[in-house]
Amino acid sequence: MADPSHDAHPPDLGPGLRVSADGPVGSLVLNRPDKLNALSTDVLFGIEAAARWFDTQRGLKVVVLWGEGSSFSAGADVAGFVTDPGDGLTARDRADAGRRAADALEAMAAITVARIQGHCIGGGVVIASACDFRIAADDASFSIPEIDLGIPLAWGGIPRLIREIGAAATRDLVMTCRRFDPVEAREIGFVQRVVPEPDLDVAVEALVTQLAGKAALPLLSTKAHINATTSQMTGQGRGWMEADTLVTALHDEESREAANRYLQGLAER
Ligand code: COA
């Protein structure tokens, strides 16, 4: 008898994402390499839809999240900052899309592995922090420039970073907006492994094979147990205020001035 909860066909997520699942292993690919996989609202809604689809895949144990091209992700799509995307969404819906994507990724039953090369910035850091494993190439570069962009870090970034690296390191990285390299990322516990860039695929494959070889019940229930233990920090409740603060910042004069300086700096490079 057909299982009504099983959906064999990947959803149509548009050109910005690719999704697949084959037996115990799946992959979710950020597919805007010409924009360094900047996370547009469409892509964020797609990540949410993909996460739900993965949960319909029987036997799935591990999903690798990676970015096509030179970088994992340059974060939230700043183009939407400059011009109204004309997508018919409210500012609040747009502000909340990243939180929904990160929450959906984290809630997935399968273990998630973020494969990180090149730039991993802002919202890219948050999406990676919603994954269970992060493996970085030694060419990776991390930063969380939101405050310089005149907005608070949202999308559940603060609680997830505190969960993964502690409050002191979170303050340092989020408030200074400074870059940090993969070695520091490993030292503070943000990534579990750093490997030379040419070895990244082999390292990810080795981890995936190791995880996929485990019995599903104890493996996936361990993920659920860890999430249940930390759910007070990262649970749905905080999503209520985050998107509102983000929208408020878009109308705050001093924050807008910071945003304009930041975006002008980008344009003048
Ligand atoms: N949103 C939208 N587009 C982005 C982007 C972003 N966050 N990051 C990069 N891009 C686009 C660039 O506009 C450029 O597009 P174009 O070729 O049509 O002009 C393309 O991606 C390549 O980026 P470019 O800046 O030319 O690459 P670089 O190697 O010189 O610099 C970065 C790379 C990551 C240092 C630089 O792109 C950057 O600082 N991006 C913004 C990061 C950011 O502030 N993200 C927001 C975090 S919340």
Descriptive account of the structure:
The chain is an alpha/beta fold and 269 residues long. It has helices spanning 41-54, 79-82, 91-107, 123-129, 157-165, 167-176, 182-187, 200-212, 216-234, 239-249, 253-268; strands spanning 17-22, 25-30, 62-67, 111-116, 119-121, 133-137, 141-143, 193-195. Strand 2 (25-30), helix 1 (41-54) and strand 3 (62-67) form a beta-alpha-beta unit. Coenzyme A (COA) binds at residues 35-36, 38, 74-79, 119, 121-123, 145-146, 266.
Structure described in brief:
This protein has helices at 41-54, 79-82, 91-107, 123-129, 157-165, 167-176, 182-187, 200-212, 216-234, 239-249, 253-268, and strands at 17-22, 25-30, 62-67, 111-116, 119-121, 133-137, 141-143, 193-195. The protein has 269 residues and is α/β, with parallel strands linked by helices.
Reconstruct the topology from this structure:
Layout: E1 17-22, E2 25-30, H1 41-54, E3 62-67, H2 79-82, H3 91-107, E4 111-116, E5 119-121, H4 123-129, E6 133-137, E7 141-143, H5 157-165, H6 167-176, H7 182-187, E8 193-195, H8 200-212, H9 216-234, H10 239-249, H11 253-268
Parallel strand pairs: 2-3, 3-4, 4-6, 5-7, 6-8
Antiparallel strand pairs: 1-2
The chain binds coenzyme A (COA).
Q: What structural keywords apply?
A:
six-stranded mixed beta sheet; two-stranded parallel sheet; alpha/beta; 269 residues; binds coenzyme A
